[in-house]
Amino acid sequence: MNSLRGWTDVKPVWRIALNYVLVWVARVAPSLRVRNWALRRLGVTVGEGVSWGLEATPDVFWPELITLGDHAVVGYDSVILCHEFLQDEYRTGEVVVGDRAMIGAKTVILPGVHVGERAQIAANSLVTRDVPPETTVAGVPARPMGDSDDE
User: Fold this and answer.
1) Contact of 87 with 2, CB cutoff 8 Å
2) pTM of the entire structure?
3) Fewer beta carbons under 10 A from the terminal one: N or C of the chain?
C-alpha cells in the first residue's frame, strides 16, 4: 500500500487542517511580519530579519523541522519539504537554512538538506544535498556553479 494513504496515522487531521490555514497565511499575507508570525505558529524556527517570499510553501506535515537562520531569504514560490511519502514508507529530515543564505524563486529543497551560511541557490533549482557555506548552486539537481563535465 502507498504510504500516503496512511497519512492520518502520522499526524492528526485537525493539526494538518490548522497547518494548511497557517501555510496559506504564510504564502499570501502582504506583510513579512505576518508571514513570519504564521511560520512561527507552524513551529518553524525563524531567525531575525528572515524574508519569506510570497507563495513560498513550508512543509505542511513537519514544519517544525525547518530552521531559517538570521536574515535568510526564501524566494517567491519556493518549497521546503521535510518529508517524502514513498511506496512503502515515509521519511522525514530537518531542513536548515543558514544565516544570510538566499534561496531563489521556485526552488525546491528536499528533506534533510542543510544550506550553509551565505550560500546562494539559483531560481528553479532542486536541492537534494547539503549546500556548503558561501557556495552558489544551480540546476536540477543543484550543483555548485562552474562545475561541469567539460571542465
Assistant:
1) yes
2) 0.91
3) C
